[in-house]
Amino acid sequence: MAGTKKKGARVAPPAGARERILAAALKLFAERGFDATATKAIAAEAEVPGGLVFYYFENKEALLEEIFKSGNLTDVIEETVDSIADEPPSRGLKEAGTRLFQWLRDHEDLARIFFKEMTSHRPVADRLRVLRRRAIARVGSYLDGAVQRGALARTNTKLMAQAFVSSILLAAIFDRETNADSYVRDLVTILVGDRRRGSA
Asked: What are the structural domains, with CATH classification, of the chain?
């Protein structure tokens, strides 16, 4: 008969189910931790059938990997540094630092997962290590360019980049009371200070 479902026919998953599963996993992983979060709890939070989690994702590890891909901080850092390429460090670092700080605040759950799981999940620790290394390399390259242009006196640009990136990562994630603008401004003043070319 017309309109009758064929036996064994696959029923289409609810609209937006995959996105709801990702959002639920992000929330619960941040709150409870990866190991303490069952896929059943993720399905309940997403308001989807339990088996639908595995329809989209092979396992919890695949779900966690997709969460990291969807919030690609590496792209944010690269785009931000590219946008300040011609700015002097006193202004460029403030702009880049404020953007990075705000992104981490806006993606608090993702940042919390990074730091909560880095000691117990090697892939998470490796991903965070690579992310930090890339961020330091991009900021260091920007500072090298500033030295070459004469906008910054010769200094250890790698060490300056390490201090800049690490300080913002820690402050944005662990100190919710910190004001982004004032923190970044003070940090840049400490790092750049009298290293600007031509300063006394």
From this structure: 17-60 (1.10.10.60), 72-192 (1.10.357.10)
